[in-house]
Amino acid sequence: MWAVTLPKACPFLFSLKTRKMLMKYTAFGPSFAVHWTQEHKVGSFLKRRATVQTELNAQTDPRKMQELSQELSNIEEHVVRSNFWLGTLQSTLVRLQKGEEFLRQADVAMGFLANASKLMEVQFEGETGFGIAVTQSFYVEVAQALQERSINSAMPMWVEDNDSSAGQQHLLCRKGLLLKPLPPGPLRDRVVHRFRFLGRLMGQALREGFIVPLPLADDFFALLLEEPLGPSSLPKPGHGVAGELLGALSDFLDDLALNEAQQREAGQSEEEIQAWRQAQVRNLSH
């Protein structure tokens, strides 16, 4: 038990590589642990097998086809005879349709796979491709959909940016996507469900080694880690999100407090400090 408990309690003692390895082999169940062990031992052969298979499918020269077939057979024999090979992990083929129903279908798929020890392969309706590249494009499509202005207006997850009048289809927040306070009423439950979908999506991608290119702000991860957020987390001018004035006013108050402390150390009276403070506020209002 100490091997799992110690890295959680004292993560600074271990490198990022070690902590990622520990997570891979302990967080997703024995099926994926065995899968990654095999990938580590015979992964190079599996990659070569996929390459040879692709070349063989596109080949028309009989002699070259024979050579590739022989190489493919040798690779298969090496993998099967390996002491580390127990068999491939089962996959679930998910067919999705791009368009208005895409996020709903993706939500259903993530709910179905949440407790399944299977890999996910995605195929889009009307397209013939499938495999790793198509599955990665699925995560890209979801990330882009979650950043669309129209979708965020109907399902408010993120703070709006200040470029809404620029005609851009997606949110453009230079600091990253900031969580928007949950709305009241029935919409609240729908937004919470959407965040649960996002969590399942991230977990599925993490489990299978894919990337969800969603530009989340650092504050998002601070909240996940239950770290307190203070005035320094308010959006500042230049971050590209609504509410930047709040951050500017927060900085102004910090500057006032710092200058007042310096004036007290210099021996100025409270009346002089108060007069200086009022002058600064007047200057700000102008």
UniProtKB/TrEMBL annotation:
Record-linked SUPFAM superfamilies: Hect, E3 ligase catalytic domain
Secretion signal span: none
InterPro entries registered for this protein in UniProt: Hect_E3_ubiquitin_ligase (IPR035983), HECTD1/TRIP12-like (IPR045322)
Keyword entries, A-Z: Transferase
Gene3D superfamilies named among the record's database cross-references: Hect, E3 ligase catalytic domains (3.90.1750.10)
Tagged with keyword Transferase: yes
Domain of life per record: Eukaryota
Keyword Ligase: no
Protein name in UniProt: HECT domain-containing protein
